[in-house]
Amino acid sequence: MKHTQIPLVTLHESPPLPGNGKFHVKLIEGVYQNLRRLVSWPLLGLFFILVWVRINGQPLIMFDVNAHRIFLFGAELSWYDLPILAGMMICGASLLFFMAVGWGRVWCGFACPQSIWTWLFIRIEEMVEGRAAKRAQLEQGSLRGLTLVKRMVKHSLWLLLSFATALTFSGYFVPIDLLIADLIQLDLSLFGLSWLIIMSLLTYANAGLVREKVCLHMCPYSRFQGVMFDDKTYTVTYDRARGEPRSHLRGKDETQGDCVDCSICVQVCPTGIDIRDGLQAACIDCAACIDACDTVMVKLGKETGLIGFYSEQSLTDRAPKNNRFTPRVKTILRPRLLGYFCIFITTLLAVSYALQTKTELIIEVARDRGALYQIINGHVCNHYQIELEAFSPQLTQLSIAVDSSLPLGTLALIGPEHIDLFDQNTSTHYTVCAANAQLPSKMDIAFTFTSGAFSASKNSTFLAPY
């Protein structure tokens, strides 16, 4: 029997994960950094502003735990509408997957709160202690004098921003004005104060102390991103065929690549990786290395794009240009991408429909269980406790009526004709009576509540003697 030899395959060692050593990120300007600010700064502004916005006295966005209400852009949801929130999360997840399959971790690099706050903290760090090289120099010196003052100022500003973030975030669950008033008057509960302290410290640690560790070890997306990508996914990629072998300006010949090994792409990376080692779990596609490398290429009089948003296929299938090969742009339309987009659109339509048909009035009708019925002046009477909770600012007063299969006028409703919804919920006692003549022992009745064009009903039962 003839045996075939298994071919020898050389496996390239994967690049190491970012080390535990501290590194200082160099800030860079460029097209992608301007685009990132164009996305992240409005999101940051909305976070701090929307918590103060009110519509007809109601918050624009709030998850009001005490009132059991959710306010979303003028819509008021009950806890019974939590499936709508689940639909919104599915909608957001499908959009994230769609973007991941098409363009990698652009959400992480351009819009993720962790990235936005990390860049803010780096800005503060540079404003107080200087550029990256200066910060690295101060790190090597002794912590005293002006260096100590700068370090204390930096951490104080970090803590101040962290506390403002925690306070604003809490304002989406508790009215922000009441929260600040209690804080100023030192009347904040122990739970509320503990929550603010914990959230502040978490923000301070995530964005200031462990930055890249969050993206690599805590964010689940860094772990399953490889499942989302394929050979057509556009991510921040180093053009190895063009850049290698690396060289320096002196003694450079035609056989050497365009990469001059300046390492500026490493210096500007917020997670401390070398993009030239290939796709890595810690890369968040912030494109800082693209802007940095393009700046160097322009200074050297070379074509930009040594690092860019490329797919594996576009680098493999190249097109000739000026006697050299450049990545070919391929269509992004493919089944997986279209599938996620269809899921996103379908979920979005379902959520929109659910918002149009959401619960506006919760009705609870409890018949008095102490006595099945009472005979009062020849009439059979049943007692009911009706509880109403409205989730629409238009429902301030409701008219009530009772219906049954009996001829009109057989049942008499004893109680207020109109119900005023104080604080949008109320509890009222009603009695329903009928003449004690040829009544079935049990029959279905319905309480109907109306207010203008709005109408809702709740079924119950009416008991009578044999």
Question: What would you say about this model in short?
Answer:
Helix content is 41%, strand content 21%.
Task: Describe the model.
With 466 residues, this protein is of the alpha+beta class. It has three domains: 31-226, no CATH class; 235-327, no CATH class; 361-463, Sandwich (Immunoglobulin-like), CATH 2.60.40. It has helices at 31-49, 82-103, 106-110, 113-129, 132-140, 146-170, 176-184, 190-209, 211-218, 221-228, 240-243, 264-267, 288-299, 312-316, 335-356, and strands at 54-55, 58-59, 61-64, 69-72, 75-78, 235-238, 307-310, 318-321, 324-327, 361-367, 374-376, 379-390, 397-404, 411-414, 418-420, 425-435, 442-451, 454-463. Strand 11 and strand 12 (379-390) form a beta hairpin. The termini are far apart. Residues 9-17 have low confidence and may be disordered. Residues 251-278 form the 4Fe-4S ferredoxin-type domain. Keywords: 4Fe-4S, Electron transport, Iron, Iron-sulfur, Membrane, Metal-binding, Transmembrane, Transmembrane helix, Transport.
